[in-house]
Amino acid sequence: MRALYEVPVESIRRFWAKVHVADDGCWLWTGSTRNGYGQFSWTIDGQTYKVGAHRFSYELFVAPLGKLHVLHACDTPLCVRPDHLHSGTHEENMAEMAERGRARQGMNRPTKVTVEEVREIRELVAQGATQTAVAAAYGVSQRAVSAIVRYEVWKDVE
Fold first, then answer.
1. 133-148 residue pLDDT tens
2. CA torsion angle for 86, 87, 93, 95 (degrees, to 10)?
3. Whether residue 1 has pLDDT greater than 60
4. Which domain holds residue 62?
5. Does residue 124 contact residue 38 with C-beta atoms inside 8 Å?
6. How far apart are CA 68 and CA 154, in angstroms?
7. Whether this model's pTM surpasses 0.85
8. Which of 81, 82, 101, 133 is geometrically suited to a Cys-Cys bond with 27, CB 3.0 to 4.6 A?
């Protein structure tokens, strides 16, 4: 990744336009996603750079990462709030996932959502996140997100 001091100011403004401050304290990414995590890109001199939105945020506010990973203390893949993030190795990331019960065969999150996640899903979609992006972030189908948003399921959760 290019040093953040080389990232054009307009690109940093574009990054912030895709961040929603949630009631639970997370700063949720509402832009594009990959494998459930936010993705951010910018161009310098015709060269496009793409990184995880959480990685971009960490390096912007905290420090360069080098080969380290960004881990989420809040267990919310779309969160880009710097004090919810910390650096670590791949092995440390896998250990945290296992400790918190998020490790499932090939998945970062269980396929069933909690009441709190239902509220988060509804809020993200209301704020403009696509159902497809939210579905990827929570490990469910777009159809499941649609049913949640339309109160076809979890009707009792406001």
1. 888 888 888 888 888 8
2. -80
3. no
4. 4-108
5. no
6. 38
7. no
8. 81
